[in-house]
Amino acid sequence: MYYYVLFLYLLNYLIEEDLVVMENEFIDKWKSQVKKGTLSFIVLNTIWGKELYGYELITIIKETTKIEIAEGTLYPLLNRLKKEELVSSKWVDQESGIPRKYYLLTKHGVTTIKEMTAYWEELELSIKKITHHGI
Q: Which of 17, 42, 59, 93 is the most buried (most CB within 10 A)?
């Protein structure tokens, strides 16, 4: 009887541990999807009204949002934003002798980020209604 109870206890423990791992996996995947879905929005907002180089952009986003962006994620995204004509870039010589590529919004980028922000604010209000008051 003792071993049977011990077995049931261990089985229950393992099931609970698996559920916790499954819940964490779900949350991790969800966070990753949210990050991917909002990264363009975050980058465009960060550049808005400024000229920033890549590492500076990574640092500001990390300090402001706690989202860590790898260079291997940021630069392909910036290239895509350039192809969409939302961002332009320019090389600027530095005193160190190594030029930096600075990114800035184009006029089309400013128009786009304004539209994205309006949609984001609508979405935020809708989510607040659902999460704070229910449907």
A: 42
Measure Cα distances from 74 to 46, 118, 119, 121 in Å: 13, 24, 23, 24
Please state, rounded to an integer, the average pLDDT across all residues of the chain.
85
CATH of residue 83:
1.10.10.10
Total number of domains constituting the chain: 1
Place of tokens 């930096």: 100
CB 65 within 8 A of CB 42: yes
CA atoms of 36 and 58, how far apart (whole Å): 15
The 10s digit of each residue's pLDDT in 93-129 is: 988 888 999 999 999 999 999 999 999 999 988 888 8
Give me 127's structure tokens: 């989510």
pTM beyond cutoff 0.90: no
If you count DSSP H runs as helices and E runs as strands, how many of each does the chain have, helices first?
Answer: 4, 3
What's the domain range around 101? 39-133
